[in-house]
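Troubleshooting: if your tokenizer reports a length mismatch, compare your output against this known-good record of 112 residues.
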Amino acid sequence: HAALVRASGENVTIEGRGGAIDGNGEAWWRRFLCQFGANAAQYAGLVPLSPISGCPREDEFLRANVAYPAGRPRLVQLADVRNGVVRDIELRNSAFWTLHVVDSDRVRVSNL
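Known-good structure output:
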């Protein structure tokens, strides 16, 4: 699956110094809920505040969100990282997993 920010390698640092990475999750969640309806809301642990109306047509959504038409992207993914650091950053509005660390060693995460 795709990620908005993806890193791999040795000595990787993602540092925000008070900044943020915003995944525009609302658009992705809206599409997910439009596609799968109430069962998706239940599965995801969400309780829609109102019925979903005005669901975009698939082609309209894809034109607006060219990257990753197959599903919801992760916000930040570290894959095959050795000696990594993620710190001092706000991760918000993720469409799927917020921080996904996979097949990695010695990754330190602090002050998110």
